[in-house]
Records
---
Amino acid sequence: MVNEKEAAGGLEWRIKVADGSSKTLTPEAGVGSRVLQGLKGLIVGLVMKLWKFLKKSWDLGHKDPRKVIHCFKVGAALTVVSLFYYMKPLYDGVGGNAMWAVMTVVVVFENSVGSTLYKCLNRVFGTFLAGFLAIGVHWIAIQSGEKLGPFIVGFSVFVLASAATFSRFIPSIKARFDYGAMIFILTFSLVSVSGYRVDKLFDMAHQRLSTIIIGTCLCILVSMLIYPIWAGQELYTIITRNMDKLANSLDGCVAEYFNSSGGSTDSNKESNKDSLGYKCVLSSKASEESMANFARWEPAHGRFNFGHPWKQYLKIGASLRSCAYCIEALNGCINSENQAPEYLKKRISNISLKVGSNSSSVVKELANVVKTMKKSSNIDFLVGEMNSAVQEFRNHLKSLPTLFIPQSLHEADQNPENKNTEPTSTGVEAVPLMDIVPLVTLASLLTEIASRIEGVVDAVEELADLAKFKPMPDDKTEANQPTNKVVPDQHKEDETMKTLQRV
Amino acid sequence: MVNEKEAAGGLEWRIKVADGSSKTLTPEAGVGSRVLQGLKGLIVGLVMKLWKFLKKSWDLGHKDPRKVIHCFKVGAALTVVSLFYYMKPLYDGVGGNAMWAVMTVVVVFENSVGSTLYKCLNRVFGTFLAGFLAIGVHWIAIQSGEKLGPFIVGFSVFVLASAATFSRFIPSIKARFDYGAMIFILTFSLVSVSGYRVDKLFDMAHQRLSTIIIGTCLCILVSMLIYPIWAGQELYTIITRNMDKLANSLDGCVAEYFNSSGGSTDSNKESNKDSLGYKCVLSSKASEESMANFARWEPAHGRFNFGHPWKQYLKIGASLRSCAYCIEALNGCINSENQAPEYLKKRISNISLKVGSNSSSVVKELANVVKTMKKSSNIDFLVGEMNSAVQEFRNHLKSLPTLFIPQSLHEADQNPENKNTEPTSTGVEAVPLMDIVPLVTLASLLTEIASRIEGVVDAVEELADLAKFKPMPDDKTEANQPTNKVVPDQHKEDETMKTLQRV
């Protein structure tokens, strides 16, 4: 490891020089040695910076080796396409246009199969369409004579480039054909102003198109055959990971609130990390959307068919985010300075933990449904459990007012800060409303979270219908809920009725 | 307008054909007329679709005319660069490489000045660096002889392409040099495998670089001189707009809750639209980040210097979002089915509205600070007001427990749904805790929002320091708070003390 002190020393020396100060720490040293020392400091500083950068890069690659593999894939594809220059027959075949194959590989090769396919197809069709149109315009320009021709070409470039640029602003086109529109403009302007004769143009168009097709095929093959990264799989992983994180956060938040006084530091840290997992959910919208856009270009892979309802994952993501907003608010409210006294917290800790764990087990079950791609017959039971826990929490709160005795206005005015009222020995307690504010807020937000989780349930069930998930085998169902002997359908109806009665 | 019925009729007919059904609505019509009708329906359907698409595009352009202007700018830049092909001396000057100027314009011209500059500079420096390196490698390959040469070139392409691709994953490089890294790979592979002699390479490199510089200069000039769209200005607009929306949402949410029974439908709709403005704040992270990335490439423009602290706007954006999360939770909680009775709502409506309006006026004042780019001496006063309103709200809640009389457990069990308890004539009221749950939640969330608004205040004050905002002229301050005779600084100290005492 490089000595950090030395680097700091070098920096200090340079600052002194910049200040124009004549004092030095080592007056006996000559100018030469000082310059040498300064240079040394500078180099050491640079090496330090480089070292840090390399270390960060190494960590990045170590954390996600697929990124490193992707880099090697790009390198390999480029090296292969470069061979065109060295193999005489191939080079002659495409008439020196091999450059376009190299260029295609560089700009088209993306991280995921979906984005590579999106760019490849857009490039091929954009080039084809624009080339076709441009040859037409070129032919008209030539027929119109030498004077009018350039104006026709110029005008058509202006109009089509403007129109294609505008189309890139339209959301539905931007999502699918953004790159194609750019390639369209590029090819159209290149071909229409190239000034070649039409017969030579056909030759050129043929060569250009064939080199582009060679490049795209190579990209598609390499990205699909060597350690493929599927955008659909990525989206699926993000969603299931977010579900797990949300469930852990919910558990963690509630547990942290009620265990804040006890517990070792290590386990606290661990639970703190867990309970902040929802923050990932808050900020994953952009990546979810781009993955869903790319996923629809992908062929069947793994457990996903072509035409898998990827858009539904976005709905699930949105419903997860709406839960995460509430967890964020919950986290803020229960960490505020206004805390409920311990004895009151203890009184509702069991039921709060039950609501929290029931809610999170619904989310975990949903994550399981998506992970196994099998409909769960358990989910209605769990939703019912969650709703009954919420209802129980409410009933518990309803019984709390009996704890209050009227505080006279006089007393309240005189002791507004009298928060630490302890339970008296008479069994009747005076609890200021302020003390139960955090608990009531917790209850309210947990209720809201539970109702939003039902939104997630709906979204996942819609996905299960759209993607035709099969029901989970019965033996697993029974293993999960050994006491529940009701037939799933009847059970579902039963639970729905219960839920309806409760709401 | 095209007749919609006709289109539907055509569709119906086609469905019938697809079903293989022999029944028709018009049995007297022959096969020919049916085919004709079908074709008519098909065409009308297509025209309808096209019409809808065009109408949507027109609306898009009408809503943001700058997009249309951008399209014309791209068209104009491309037409100008195409002239190179028609002007003999210019064309000869760049030796047929004019293609690269066209290509540069197409791929480099972006919507905002910042993104255009980012791509231009990345393109120029990426090309320059890669060309330089590639010529070096090429020279070494030639020196190594015909057998070893291709291996050296292939190996260097593989290594450098892999390394450059990997660098695109490193966040700090991705934010600034993503495009440059791609251009580096492109140029390096094109030059190093091109198979030219080194002296010809220098010629080519010179031409390539000059055409690229011509293209980039044209892009920069057009994007900066004709109706420029500055990324910095956009970011600034997003942030101030989000502040206004957040303030309006806060006002709207609280007002809507307390006015839900009265008011005309029109004003309700209006306030509903206002109160949902915070949803924009929730989803603006991605656009804020990309704007901030581009803004740092921009020169001084309007009221912004080069090196304006754009990153601070991201911090303000993040703090606004953290408020928006709470408003989202608030919106969910107060719209839930569990509602407080009207007479209780009335009792806290004044103070809640006060907290809401005081909080929103802090946000509005902050928006004003950012809009006018002048420090406000009013802000500390407003924050003080907000905190005192929050404290008043708490005191108000503290006085509420005196409203309760103990409910016997028996009674509570028998009438769990007895929510509509009216105030009795004796002056002592029985209010179940469940009835005040929404009010307590409102109080809690408003308190949390107020404390998060202080985070926004900190972020804006940091911006004011970093960007060296000047203090607002005194006359304006006095006009805003005519009753406040305290000197701003003393006043500030005073408020800080008050705040400290309260917290």
Note: Chain A is about 75% helix and 0% strand.
---
Amino acid sequence: MDATEEIRRLKYRYLRSLDLKQWDEFADTLTTDVQASYGKRLSFEGRDAVVDYMRTSLPPTIITVHQCHHPEIEVDGDTATGTWYLDDKVLVLDHRLMITGAAFYEDVYARTDDGHWRIARTGYVRSYEAMEKLDDSWQLTANRWSESTPSATTT
Amino acid sequence: MDATEEIRRLKYRYLRSLDLKQWDEFADTLTTDVQASYGKRLSFEGRDAVVDYMRTSLPPTIITVHQCHHPEIEVDGDTATGTWYLDDKVLVLDHRLMITGAAFYEDVYARTDDGHWRIARTGYVRSYEAMEKLDDSWQLTANRWSESTPSATTT
Amino acid sequence: MDATEEIRRLKYRYLRSLDLKQWDEFADTLTTDVQASYGKRLSFEGRDAVVDYMRTSLPPTIITVHQCHHPEIEVDGDTATGTWYLDDKVLVLDHRLMITGAAFYEDVYARTDDGHWRIARTGYVRSYEAMEKLDDSWQLTANRWSESTPSATTT
């Protein structure tokens, strides 16, 4: 597998483990001294700070979907840069809120001592982010984090 | 074209022919004994069962958009596995309902006797699925399956 | 970088510069005699016509998100064809309207005299396009083109 594909897979693992709330695997995608900046309001220094924030902010009642598109990756030896186009949706079930948005990510990757690529710096600038109240008619018909979701749909 | 790219293209053809309701091409992406499991409620054994279900469930009044992201594909000789992140939307026009969702696919692929890769097993676990009534203000401005869609937008 | 990857990157640059309203970079992704056809209502001949239309139609009060998936690219010497699956969203802030849609792109690419691939023909057929009024509860919490967006969300 070439470095570009390894880095794409790294980003997929980062987003998958984030949305599946698998915090050990999520932590493993970051360098120990990662710098992360999500929009204007949230910045973190170091793996522990990022993971702690995500773990405490994203309980099972908050469903997140982070999908990244359009990888533009440049590899230079053991470092690399990458641009991605994020599409994300956050369902805050307890408050029946939905947050949607899009952003351009600018990442830096490093091949660390064990030979694996990790995220050394990550950040994005949002095109937009919006919050809305979910309409009364809106109902969950499946929820990975709840066994008791009613089966109301026929498709 | 290497096997990984062939398998990505297979998945794109599967999803494109599904959303375009091109059932012969859709059938050709599956092995004859494919096993398919879409969420907890829908499981099928064999190509004919999958195709029959889709063909009868998805008339032109139901518009589907299935887009898969983040391919993580592992090839081992003539078999392969793949994980994908689905984003989907279903418009049930007759009832003015919209279903949205996200899921992680786990697929198995096989290179069959004619040298082509096909889907041997497919299934997903949904992060969430939701159903909502389309707001009164919501109106179609284009519809591939209807010639008479009004042209109300200027963009 | 092989031709297939160069063409994917070309498409990402085209969509990124479109959504970021970077019209010089956008123009550079097109051949001078490009033919563009967006749905049934909008067709253009030549780079200047495309760029002029986009520049005047998409001021900062109109936020666009165009993301393309499922690249199926065939290279034949210095020309190539490509199919993509578009997912798009347009926020018309002044009128609190949102347009959403999906479409299959059919593109033709050409390697031009300077060795760079450019878009020679582009067009799509929409699966659907819909327009809706944004609900009263819907509010922007980030906007790349506005410094004064209130920070109302905590995520």
Note: The longest strand of chain A covers residues 117-133.
